[in-house]
Amino acid sequence: MQNPMHGSPEGRNPTYYPDDPGCKRFRGPYMSASRRGNYDSGEDFVLEYGELRFTFNEGDFSERCEQAALKLGFVGGRLGQEELEDLVNLAVNGEIVDPASALGAHVNDCWPELVGPAERSLVHWLRRLVFRGAWLDQRVNEGELDVAFDQETGSFAYVQPDPRSSGGGEPIELAAEPSWGRVAYRR
User: Fold this and answer.
1) What is the rounded distance in angstroms from the CA atom of residue 55 to the CA atom of residue 60?
2) Mind listing the pLDDT tens digit for each residue in 123-172?
3) How many CB atoms lie within 10 A of CB 111?
């Protein structure tokens, strides 16, 4: 069963099936300037924004939720299975009705500090970072971005492709995200 994070508008394009010979969806490394492809790793979770429809398998979506929570400073390390289940429920449903772990109980205990106007809520930022990561990965798959390792910082960065340079172009600057460290979940 799919867990759509947003309702599907009527008249939406049908689901993409890679084996369908009638499908006119992008199939090569270079993208038409008129339409970008949608990220697809499975059919367990769906995230839509505007014309984009990203679909995720359970493992991919769970990892992206965990990485988003780490980046936001809401968790300090890898999560156990029940904690991850609660985090995914939070990202998908916007709340945790029946906590399966201490993380779920923590979210409910701190709820007034986690909820707020859309751009200030933890749920908004979890979803936003999951979407941003998939969007960037899709741009890499389509050849619009590359990934480069910065030896000075020991981290990876997205860069504009530059065929004249072996290390790629300049890193793109991503918008900063808020820190949720003040209400972080600690074991």
Assistant:
1) 10
2) 999 999 999 999 999 999 999 999 988 888 888 889 988 777 665 678 88
3) 13
